[in-house]
Amino acid sequence: MVYVLLAEGFEEVEALTPVDLLRRAGAEVRLIGVTGSIVHGSHGIGVETDLTMEQVDWDAGEMIVLPGGMPGTTNLYAEGRVTEAVRRYFDEGKYIAAICAAPSVILGGMGLLNGRRATCYPGMEEGMKGALPQRQSCVVDGKIITACGVGGALDFACALVAALCGEETARKIAQAVVYHAAG
Q1: 39 in the Ramachandran plot: left (φ > 0), alpha (ψ -120 to 50) or beta?
Q2: What pLDDT sits at residue 138?
Q3: Element housing 144 (H / E)
Q4: Which residues contact 55 (CB under 8 A, 6 or more apart)?
Q5: What is the pLDDT confidence band of residue 181, given thresholds at 50, 70 and 90?
Q6: What is d(CA 14, CA 61) in angstroms, rounded to the nearest whole number?
Q7: pTM, whole model, 2 decimals?
Q8: Is the separation of the CB atoms in 66 and 97 below 8 Å?
Q9: For residue 78, how many C-alpha atoms fall within 13 Å in the half-sphere facing its CB?
Q10: What is the pLDDT of residue 180?
Q11: What does the alpha-carbon distance between residue 77 and residue 66 come to, in Å, rounded to a whole number?
Q12: What is the mean pLDDT of residues 24-52?
């Protein structure tokens, strides 16, 4: 199970592109409303979530996805249940995926990037404390997957599919959505 955490002000493309591609690949994905059952993105698009934080079975999950966007990222980081879940997944060696501001604000803020290669929204690298910043669209370092922002959303989504469903499935999904950069 993949849990995509949404708080008011999330970046819509960064959240929904991974959901779409992961579901195409057959992965079970649930949108989690951190700030309610309908959450509005940074561009005013309201998204009805599948579950609230109280309804999540964290034991059933294998990946947490943290979209960027402002103030969505800071709203996620301010919610103790989010950082508790992220810390738990990190400690258990489960996948944590973060894009745009989330690698800096959340993962960097929690000290989870020490000695790891990671990327984030350009100009926010200082927040990735202890990381080895990369100027790439998407970076996979073990079970931590980071991406730069909206422009890297397809690379990010394909990396999540590859991590959970294999490289061949990721290649097929990329071809099906006519994503040439992924092969």
Answers
A1: beta
A2: 98
A3: strand 144-147
A4: none
A5: low
A6: 20
A7: 0.97
A8: yes
A9: 10
A10: 75
A11: 10
A12: 97
- φ, ψ for residue 122, nearest 5 deg: -55, 135
CB contact set of 102 (below 8 Å; sequence gap of 6+): 66, 67, 68, 73, 76, 120
C-alpha torsion sign, points 167, 168, 171, 176: negative
> Tokens for 133?
């910043």
Q: Is 142 left (phi over 0), alpha (psi -120 to 50) or beta?
A: left
Contact status, residue 164 vs residue 95, Cβ threshold 8 Å: yes
**113 CB burial (10 A radius; 0-12, 13-18, 19+):** buried
**pLDDT at position 128 over 70:** yes
pLDDT at 122: 97
CB atoms within 10 A of CB 79: 16
All structural domains of the chain, each given as residue ranges with its CATH number in brackets, are 2-182 (3.40.50.880)
Query: Among 109, 65, 115, which residue's Cα sits nearest to residue 85?
Result: 65
User: In the 8-state DSSP scheme, what is residue 142?
Assistant: T
C-alpha 26/C-alpha 29 separation (Å) is 9
